[in-house]
């Protein structure tokens, strides 16, 4: 078989979760919370199902949810997208990213991605017959080098993808970054795909610079988010895309024939949550900041060196003091021999920086889980 995705194997998240299970390791690898969703969310889901919301949702999403997303966006970012023409509900951010790419990227086009980047980007670009052009982020700070981004953009560039807060590093783009980006894209026909799934998980009083705050950027952008991150339910796979009407129309053509519509009762439940409990997403940063701070204090008692975490729910650690293994081998060893599963960074790169000794640990966990992991990590 001449495969269409020769470079693709099983995702590192699946591989490490399986390995963790086989070896009884504490799983800080794949990113998912191990604590319950807000009780009200389950009640709303139950209510929606009992009320008979069990058939196909409208293709673009349940109106009450699109309206609630538009209202939340206006409240948080000062820009009110039109619920009917600019907001589309999707089956997770993964589907939204796939749709946005396939809506505008053609065979032979180029898409600029910033490495390290989340693993679903490049396969979607490849399937569109396009080519990913990889621009490395600064290996120490994970900040973009805008001059290199500028140089990577050429006549074939159709799209640029950004992700803030960033997976795997937690780095965040600043208002200055947004201005640089706007200057680079001005006068080009390049579309922007902004992956903002960790938008509400930001720390130390920082402000998430959504592309939706920036008129010059949002007019060419698909902005993607996910309720999985905000409501501790990665298994529900409900997200959304905000884009100007012309872009949303193309996006919806792909969505219509990719999944057609998204899980109906879940949409009703999120509509109620967004409308009635804004405190949940407003306090999410503080909720995770407490976990981050506690985990970092504990890590200080190990030989792993934690990097700064401005946002998201991942902690990068430098393990050079512990081992000379490359990151894939180290994470395997850590899981199998030491009982803590972590994610290596190399799968997030086209070409990983040589000698980089970093692993990603997820702190979206109960204290007991993190305590158990730390006890094992103290023995390294
Ligand atoms: N983008 C990033 C940066 C992510 O970390 C994730 C989830 N791991 C996704 C997209 C996909 O989100 P979803 O689970 O809603 O498809
Ligand atoms: N986004 C999650 C992570 O980065 C994993 C999602 C998945 O397993 N596909 O860990």
Automatic annotation (TrEMBL):
Keywords: Aminotransferase, Pyridoxal phosphate, Transferase. CDD domains: AAT_like. One of its GO terms (molecular function) is transaminase activity. Residues 26-377 form the Aminotransferase class I/classII large domain. It comes from the Bacteria. Its cofactor is pyridoxal 5'-phosphate. This is Pyridoxal phosphate-dependent aminotransferase. It comes from Luteimonas rhizosphaericola.
